[in-house]
Automatic annotation (TrEMBL):
One of its GO terms (molecular function) is dioxygenase activity. PANTHER family: 2-NITROPROPANE DIOXYGENASE (PTHR32332:SF18). Transmembrane segments: none annotated. Keywords: Dioxygenase, Flavoprotein, FMN, Oxidoreductase. It comes from the Bacteria. This is Oxidoreductase, 2-nitropropane dioxygenase family. The keyword Nucleus does not apply.
Length: 369
């Protein structure tokens, strides 16, 4: 075994042999299949909640929120069927209308952790009060955001985050928690933020809270750098799209394989947040909704310019179309390194590559987590 990177990740009551958390990718890109296989290989396997009911047998065109809950539970159960002893959790966006219901559904279905971003999850401990074993992991891009969450949770709920994800807005895919004008300026230092967040919990609360670096993590060297710079683990998403186990259709994966660095850029989401995606078809994404004239289908976001004024496009529909294989009028979120994908691989092969393990070594470690 060569130069192995084997560092356990412990969050709350749960541990895995490898310091890797699957990033949540909606709509249904990181569903139960991908999450289950990441967990089976020894990582934290994350099912993304956003819009998960659209491409499910539960959805009849009129029952978006009810279908979301049922499909979400189905995907969590699917992940556990693949990795019965694995650490399975979810990603729930604060910005969605049914946030409280999806958090509750995740707990009821047995999720072991909840990652939450696209807004500050200030009341998450209250929503999970009946499930104290569920680890709570907010996503932040600044020390200030981590401080606000910690103060609120400590004062109101006598609880602190079980871990914190520090997301780099200059490299991460999907919705980003930073103002557009600040992204890509070269001023953001992810690992300085990681160290300051970790120091804040140690100095103010005398607690060692694991900090997870997210954004731009692609290969073994990126993982080594993150750990060397003070992160306890990495969160990775885009790297896992071009796997056999990813829940997206083949055309979605092919779009990654065909992409070039210049194809990846920023858009403004109807949610009022910047997002990183493949931008070559963005005019067709917008035109699709203008031509359809259907308007807002379900008010899935608390704040949405498409719902309120008809501007931009319906993001849940655009993401759903892409996941189903319509890469012409569908929106494909990705990180800045998505262009590096050059083949369809497997989750196991990615773990072997990242952690420099032989297949037998990695299987043994995952089993003995």
């Amino acid at each position: 075994m060569k130069n192995t990177v084997v560092k356990k990740l412990v969050i709350g009551q749960y541990s895995t042999p490898f310091p890797l958390v699957l990033g949540g990718m909606g709509v249904r890109v990181s569903g139960g299949n991908l999450a289950g296989h990441v967990a089976r290989c020894g990582g934290f396997g994350t099912v993304a909640a956003a819009g998960i009911g659209l491409n499910s047998s539960h959805y009849n065109g009129r029952n978006f929120f009810a279908a979301d809950i049922q499909a979400f539970k189905d995907e969590i159960r699917k992940a556990y069927a693949i990795a019965p002893e694995g650490v399975i959790g979810v990603n729930c966006m604060v910005a969605v209308t049914n946030y409280d219901d999806m958090v509750r559904a995740a707990c009821e279905a047995g999720a072991k952790y909840i990652v939450s971003g696209a807004g500050l999850p200030m009341s998450l401990p209250a929503q999970t009060a009946d499930y104290p074993h569920v680890a709570l992991i907010p996503i932040v891009s600044s020390v200030r955001a981590a401080q606000l969450i910690a103060r609120k949770w400590s004062q109101n709920y006598k609880r602190l985050p079980d871990a914190v994800v520090v997301e780099d807005p200059d490299t991460a895919g999907g919705h980003l928690g930073e103002k557009p004008e600040k992204i890509g300026t070269g001023c953001y230092d992810q690992y300085e933020t990681v160290r300051q967040v970790k120091a804040h919990f140690q100095e103010v609360y005398q607690k060692d809270v694991p900090v997870i670096a997210a954004g731009g993590i692609w290969d073994r060297q990126d993982v080594l750098q993150a750990l060397a710079q003070g992160a306890d683990a990495v969160q990775m998403a885009s790297r896992f799209v071009c796997t056999e186990e990813c829940d997206a259709e083949p055309a979605f994966k092919q779009a990654y394989l065909d992409s070039r660095p210049e194809d990846i850029g920023l858009i403004m989401s109807p949610a009022g947040l910047p997002g990183r995606a493949l931008v070559g078809n963005i005019d067709r994404v917008r035109q699709r909704d203008l031509d359809s004239g259907t308007g807002c289908m379900c008010a899935c976001l608390k704040k949405c310019t498409y719902k309120e004024t008809g501007e931009r496009f319906c993001i849940v529909s655009a993401l759903d179309r892409a996941q189903r294989g319509d890469v012409d009028t569908g929106l494909i979120f990705c990180g800045t390194n998505a262009w590096k994908a050059d083949k369809i691989t497997t989750v196991q092969e990615i773990f072997d590559d990242l952690f420099a393990l032989s297949h037998q070594d990695s299987r043994c470690l995952a089993v003995n987590a």
